[in-house]
Design a protein that fits this description.
- The protein has one domain: Bira Bifunctional Protein, Domain 2 (BirA Bifunctional Protein, domain 2, 2-Layer Sandwich).
- The strands form two sheets. Strands 1, 2, 6, 7, 8, 9, 10 and 11 form an eight-stranded mixed beta sheet that branches. Strands 4-3-5 form a three-stranded mixed beta sheet, with no helix packed on it.
- The protein is α/β, with parallel strands linked by helices and 224 residues long.
- The protein is globular.
- It has six helices and eleven strands.
- Helix 4 packs across helix 6.
C-alpha cells in the first residue's frame, strides 16, 4: 500500500479548471486501481477567484442572489458533484483537494473525513484557535459548545468512487466574509462563518498555512 502523499501547489486557479484537472487525476487513479496497479495519492492546495458552488444534494434556494447580483460581486456559480450544500470559495481561502486511494490508508470515507478535520483542527491549534466538530455537521467549527456563537471556519465536501476521493476542504484564512452573506452557508441559516484573520485580528500568510496543512496531512495520514 502506497501511503506517500504528493503535494501540488496550484496557487490561484479558476474553479472549473481545478475541477477538470482534479477529475483527470481522479479518473486516472481509479483506472490504475481497477487494473491492479499501485495508486498514488495527491494533495492539491490552491485558491480560487470568487465562486459559489452547490453540492449534488444542495438546495438552490440557499443561493440568495440572482445572476445579475453575482456579476455585480464578480462571482461565478458552479453546480458540482461533491457532497454538501452551498459554499463560497475566493481569495484568502485555502482550498485543499486530497485525491487519495483510501485503501492505501485502510480508511473508510467517514474515517477519511475525520482525519481531514483533525489535520485542520491541529493546524488551527498552532495559532491558538480552539476548533472542533459540530454534531451532525461536517467541517471545522468554533464555539461548538455554545450554539448561539458557533461559527464555521472550514467547510468540507467530498466525492468518492471505488474508495478514491476528490474535492475536499476550504479553510478561511483571510477570506472576505461578506461573500457568505449571499448564501446560506452549507445550508445553515442560523450559523455564522469566520476566518483565521477574523479570530486573530491579524493577517496570516497563506504560504505559512499551506506548509502547516501539508505537514499535518503527512503526519496524520502517514504515521500509522
Amino acid at each position: 500500500m502506497n501511503t506517500k502523499i504528493h503535494t501540488f501547489n496550484w496557487n490561484t486557479i479558476p474553479y472549473q479548471k481545478a475541477w477538470d484537472e482534479q477529475e483527470a487525476l481522479f479518473n486516472e487513479t481509479i483506472t490504475e486501481k481497477l487494473q491492479g496497479h499501485e495508486t498514488s495519492n495527491y494533495l492539491i492546495l490552491c485558491e480560487h477567484p470568487h465562486v459559489f458552488t452547490l453540492g449534488k444534494n444542495g438546495v438552490m434556494s440557499n443561493l440568495l442572489v440572482n445572476q445579475t447580483q453575482l456579476q455585480a460581486v464578480q462571482a461565478e456559480f458552479v453546480q458540482t458533484n461533491r457532497g454538501g450544500d452551498i459554499t463560497y470559495h475566493g481569495p484568502g481561502q485555502l482550498v485543499g483537494y486530497p485525491i487519495f486511494d483510501l485503501d492505501n490508508f485502510k480508511l473508510g470515507l467517514k474515517q477519511f473525513i475525520d482525519k481531514m478535520e483533525t489535520a485542520i483542527i491541529e493546524v488551527l491549534s498552532q495559532y491558538d484557535i480552539q476548533a472542533g466538530r459540530m454534531p451532525k455537521a461536517t467541517g471545522v467549527w468554533l464555539d461548538v459548545e455554545n450554539p448561539s456563537r458557533s461559527r464555521k471556519i472550514c467547510a468540507i465536501g467530498v466525492r468518492s468512487s471505488h474508495f478514491v476521493t476528490m474535492h475536499g476542504f476550504a479553510l478561511n484564512v483571510s477570506t472576505d466574509l461578506n461573500y457568505f452573506s449571499h448564501i446560506n452557508p452549507c445550508g445553515f441559516v442560523d450559523k455564522g462563518v469566520t476566518s483565521m484573520q477574523q479570530e486573530l485580528g491579524r493577517v496570516v500568510p497563506m504560504s505559512e498555512v499551506k506548509k502547516k496543512i501539508e505537514k499535518a496531512f503527512q503526519r496524520i495520514f502517514c504515521s500509522e
